[in-house]
Amino acid sequence: LQQTFLCSCEGFREDRGLTLENRKREPKNETRCGCKAKFRVHVDIVSMRWYVTLLEIDHNHDLLGGTLCGLLPAHRKMSQGDIDEIGRNRKAGIRPYQVYGSMANTSGGFHKVGFVKKDLYNQVGKQKKLLYSDACGAVKYLQELCTKDPLMFVAHSIDKERKLERLFWCDGESRMNYEIFGDVLAFDATYRKNKYNCPFVVFSGVNHHNQTIVFATGIVTRETEETYVWLLEQLLIAMKGKHPLSVITDGDTAIKNAIKRIFPKAHHRLCAWHLLRNVSSNIGIPDVMSHIKRCMLGDMEVGQFEMLWHEMVEKFDLHDNNWIKEICLTYFRFREIEADFQSNYGQPVLQTSLRGIERSAAKQFTKEIFILFRSVLKKAMLLRVIECQEMSTGYILKVVKYCGVGRVWHVTYCEDPLDLRCSCLRMESLGLPCDHIVAVLLYLDIDDLPSCLVLPRWSKYAKDQIREKYGNGSLYWDSQPAARYSGIFQMCKVVAELVHDDLDEFNNVIDMLGDG
What GO molecular-function term can you cite, just one (predicted)? Predict the structure, then answer.
């Protein structure tokens, strides 16, 4: 009798379906790389003990560490006890996400549950969370959270009648995220999803997986400049004085004035979604929408933008439209464990003939950003450099489409220090190299994606420095009482698994607990 245990990266994936051009879904990461690590055990018939007969400990790939190991399929397991607990909660009307959150709370963290939320949803389905609370209850609840999360920040103010006027809060992980990704801040005060119709303010951003993350939230009773100044002041206090480089809003005057006072050096941008939504209400011409979209979302240089905008204004006679004037002025001044697992476990399937630069990007970018970059890489294959002019500080290269007719982009290239910039300014606005820059890299035979084209906020290692600063897990609610409770709860689950099928053992455990 024997048993062989293999590494999850052993062998290779079949090529079936990977090369299809019209795939609707992105192929899963290629995790199998022919790893030879394994061990084999036999059982001794006489002693009935297992002994090792083969051991290969060398892996040909980087090993996952920390909390990521538990996300491997082979490590995820939903026991019968877990399934029973989910069933009992569902019968009581508790929703799936609440069940998962409760299990994470009692287990000591989501990474200790033993399975991911998707596994639970595969059992019971998906619904949204609703949470209601009045003002006093909300303040009390947030203050209780401060005792569990040492980095939690809560602030509130009351009016002359001693009623709650403003409430602001953010937890430790949000503060950590802002420290890394707080260069761009979205300030949205358009939510009123509560019975008091008070604006619910959300400060959000985007992480290195291109996912929306919340930095802080607030509730206010008045939408005044002073109210928003107070919120931004609390944000600055909570985030240790760090100012964002750009702030995105819906264009509200009170918010705009507050930003000027608190973040005087930040670039104020208008939210594209709000701009497009207001087109029909401010301009009663149906065909204008497509032209506005083309100007706002199109890939063009400043000169072409001015020309198209002027053509639109002339065509629809919008010279005296105040909204258009304001938009033009403002716009012309210019526009986290499962995702880590997906980015760090395995490598994306390479899909272009430019394997060197594609592989280099896959090693540096998170999976979501890499997928965006790969589309840029494919577009770059349709471009070519037609001229390279030497300057005192470097080179200027002209890039065109292969047909050679139409637009020309200018890419500047400096060798020391290495730097590439394009006239389309896409790298400056999106933080991702454009296809024109990539075309120049191919022209220069550069296979490794230069570090100057990889913003730290988009890399797999964006959070490494902050983890070293705070330590793994220190931002989660792991106070000593909670940790002790979680430890006991986990042991009780193990005992329940062992004795629930044996009546004698069950009675013995009950007797021991009763005697205690």
Answer: zinc ion binding
Cis peptide upstream of residue 481 (ω within 30 degrees of 0): no
Question: Positive or negative, the Cα torsion across 186, 189, 190, 194?
Answer: positive
Contact 499, 507 (CB under 8 A): no
User: Domain boundary residue among 246, 270, 294?
Assistant: 270
Measure the CA angle with vertex 111, ends 108 and 112; round to 5°: 50
Percent of the chain residues past pLDDT 70, beyond the cut: 77
SS3 187: strand
Please tell me the distance from the alpha carbon of residue 207 to that of residue 176, in angstroms, as a whole number. 11
User: What 3-state class would DSSP assign to 194?
Assistant: coil
pLDDT in tens, 51-82: 899 999 899 888 877 667 767 777 777 777 77
CA dist 306 and 194 (Å) reads: 43
Total count of domains within the chain: 6
What average pLDDT does range 353-370 have in this prediction? 86
Residues 266 and 277 in one domain: no
Considering only CA atoms, give the Rg of the chain. 28
Task: Say if 146 falls within a structural domain.
Answer: yes
The reply to whether 73 falls in a domain is: no
> Strand 38-43 vs strand 2-6: parallel, antiparallel, or unpaired?
antiparallel
Cα four-point dihedral sign 240, 246, 249, 254: positive
Tokens, residue 163? 């009623």
Q: Which residues, at least 6 apart from 44, have a Cβ–Cβ distance to it below 8 Å? A: 50, 51
Residue 502 lies inside a defined structural domain of this protein: yes
Average pLDDT over residues 172-196: 80
Single pTM value for the model: 0.50
Instruction: For residues 173 and 260, state if they share a domain.
Output: yes
| pLDDT-wise least confident of 121-125, 144-148, 429-433, 479-483 | 479-483
Residue numbers of the domain that contains 14: 1-61
Report the distance separating Cα 110 and Cα 287, nearest Å. Answer: 50
Statement to judge: residues 279 and 362 lie in one domain: no
Task: Look at residue 129 and tell me if it is in a domain.
Answer: no
Domain final residue, candidates 284, 304, 332 = 332
